[in-house]
Structures
1.
Amino acid sequence: MSLFKTRAVLLVSSILLGGLPVGAVSAEDRQVYPGTPADERVASCGITVSGGEISRIEPFLEGRDDLQGSLELDVTKRSPAGQSQSRQAGNFVNGRLGTTIISMEGPAELAIVLSVKDRSGKTLCAMRRSITLGSIPLKI
């Protein structure tokens, strides 16, 4: 099955089985968080979060084959141990982002910002999302 079909099946399955994922991400789950396509050349976009003790955040874009541009993925992590920020930026061709992954260890609160633009600077996809990895201990 192609990558496009796999991601489409994951997104449709998520919608049919109770709506889009919201809230905490279990370490064993693979969650799809859709972004907002801002151009008719983009069928879908967003991030997937998956993994074990260390979660993988991976952006995706399904666009026309002639689509080229750049992406920026920013992840700010807040945990009992402190705060950190990771950023990935790069170019893409053929309507697919390629492999861009940021790994984070939970438990943590993540603020994720994805921005995908075409070569002229027009926004193709945008996403801002906060998610929880694992259970954050309560401060007493």
2.
Amino acid sequence: MIIKNFLMLCIFFALNFVNQVDSRELSIQQLEERKKADLERAEKRKKRGKKTFSKEITLTTKITFVSMERKTPPVLSNLDPILTDEGFYGVKLAIEDNLTTGRFVGHDYKVSFHQISLNEKLSEEFEKLIDKGHKIFIVDLKEDEILSLKQLKNFDDILIFNVRSKSDSLRNEKCAKNIYHIPPSYSMLSDALTQYLVKKKWTKWFLVTGPDQNDRNYSNALKESAKKFNIKIKQEKVWDFTSDLRRTAGKEVPIFTKGSRYDVLVVADEKGEFGEYLAYRTWDPRPIAGSQGLKPNSWHRTHEQWGATQMQNRFRRESGRWMTEVDYHAWTAVRSIGEAVTRIQKNGVEDIIDYLSGSSFGLGAYKGVKVSYRSWNGQLRQPILLAAPRSMVSVSPQDGYIHPFSELDTLGKDKPESTCKF
């Protein structure tokens, strides 16, 4: 009897495991079914009529999303699509969320999208938008492009949310009072990763840096984090190979990584030109972290805690793809604006800046704690997700790291370390 019950229990768990695997494999099919159900509900809503405001509209907040057309880069992998709509669906979902409250308090939100083409000048097109009355901007731009906006004649009269650049200089010596930064800076990402590596006692690093400026920026942040947390960088190399690693990685990588004994190979390769080819090919069997392997992220497709599954499903039903970090940053920017307008009942640039930089602001952003902005440099303080390509591993700040104001300020440049001067 005992053996029979044991066998029945084994069969139950086996079937349950199969069902779980099937459910993960059929997730796209399930999402399609949900999308179909959403369309049916949309038709019913259409028949009922458009959602109306239960109170007269007293405030209309106009938000402008600006991006640059980019030249199509060389294909580094046939697995990852080149996205041209990053940020769009994040803004769209956030507007819906803002209106959920806005319809009851009489606050409307309008958004317009502007992509500046390759043959247009960013500063000139931005001036035109400002002249037309646009004042609140979400920008999907690089560091140098954001810096060029500071030369605009009416720059002090606008509010900008950066949703792409991780540059530390934008948060320090090149900061501006009216620029808020949603992406974690390189120093925040490197501190988040280093805290976990210290927890695992992987304190001897082999650091590999790519050839681009962003690679060097990330590498510099990793070096600062290593010094901050008493990490020893046993060896450091720059990756300067130009060959196609899909064919030569088995020969190049073992020779390249042969040398000092280390605990973990830490990589700074923002474009993903070589980092993916290091795994399983190093001279010594070691884990990989940084821009590949165990990676610090603001958002990740495997993130499911604190209601994130709801956001993931909403986004995929709307867009048909995974939510990227830029999508999440755009959503956070629009929700920050909505939260500020709802609380202060105003939508002036100075009013929003004062509220966002104050201690009263806090936004639920599917990360377990409310996120807020650092008053000294406009950086969004937030937990950092540490993830492998297909699984969540941990969340930083790690347990044991304390701070007099917020444990989130153990990541990146704290106020005494900041060189930002408004």
3.
Amino acid sequence: MKLGRNIFGVGLMTGISRIFGFIRDMLIARFLGAGRLSDIFLAAFRLPNLFRDLLGEGAISAIFIPMYTDMKKDEGFAKNVFSWLMLILLCITAVFEIAMPLVIWALAPGFAEDPGKMQMTIIIARIMFFYCIFICGSAFLSAILNAHSRFLLAAFMPVMLNIMLIVALASSLLYGNGIILYVMAGTVVLSGFVQFLILLARIRQKHFGLRLVIPHWNGQIKNMFKRFLVSLVGSGFYQITIIVGTLVASFESGAVSWLYYSDRIIQLPFAMIGLAVGTVLMSSISNALADKNMRSIYIQQNYSMRRSMMLIIPCVVGLFVLAEPIIRFLFQYGAWTSESTHAVAMAIKIQCLVLPAMLISQIYSKTLYASQDVNTPVRTSMVSLAIATFVYIALFPVIGYLSIPVGVVISGYVKNYLLGRVCRKRQLVKTDKKTFMSFIAFSVISVALGGILYMFNITSILSLMIAIGGFGILYLPTAFIIDRYIIK
């Protein structure tokens, strides 16, 4: 029950953040459209987001939480890691500020065909890269709170970015579009600073006086950085896959924006369900492994699989059937065209198919990281990236930007298979019969209701809400009863 409450709480906070994120994206679509200005902002914004995932929410969390738990939550260790992290972030920021023209050229080479577009992207990226210092620091602070089973504040923090960007976009009516990209870039940096201060104040109030100290090298830090450098290669490969997709898509006008918005839609159910499960399981499985309680691990894994798949499978069916009306009523205003709506919807219909694999991979990878195995996730991520890149390049001349979601789906299932094989071989995962039967039941119910949903005539946002609400009202009680009382 405690596991379920924590997952629900993190998912709820993440959902609130994503709702504000959609409002933000609707305003971006309204004021910037899906063309030159949005391409500049979104391409520049991917860079600090990548480093946040690699250095903060990815490698640092995966390595720090199990070690911190094993060391009985030692304060001195946390302060030393915090100090090393901030020093490294300052050095990285200095390097990228200098090398930004080369970085942007590598990230979006298609922009070089428009020198003005390339130059503006470099300027905006230089401003926003300072966000890395604060948001990676915030991710580390969140890891400390998660290790102490305090999940809600950290899960809610991303809403600060969305609220502040909404205010900045709304204010563009006053200052005009001439400086809108500069205002948005500055707002991104400010939001990171605000998140950092809030989390630091919370830790110092509830746990201990976390502060910067003179970084010192010892066996603990050496061991952590050894694992960190290995994990760094692989923990953010989903984000790297998206970056590579951006590089390929930059050769098709508007494709960077289309893929961004489709990924935003796909990330909503994954963040609310998959990331919530992964965040909570990282701490709970680390504690169970420290106690050598494998039975507790298996129970947590199967419970998480059933509850999360109960929710993610209908999301796949719903997104596949309703992709076009969802995008039309969310974004088709102002500068946004019907062609952009169709392009984004097509990407969603393909990419939503990877959601079950992404969710189960979260459980496998968090289990491996909790067992302090960083090599397996790295190897599987490298294989996944290689497959995705091959698909991108091979299919782009044939189907254009749709090669990116196709590559994401294929590589996602390969990664899931490889992670699961290793976990089962080491007896870190045991999926019981009830979990398999529940998966089948959820799929059958979802597809049947999806067929009914397909025939529903959606002509307004009200009818869209009725269709989604009706689907949920019919599906959720049925799935819950079957899982709880019928399947044994």
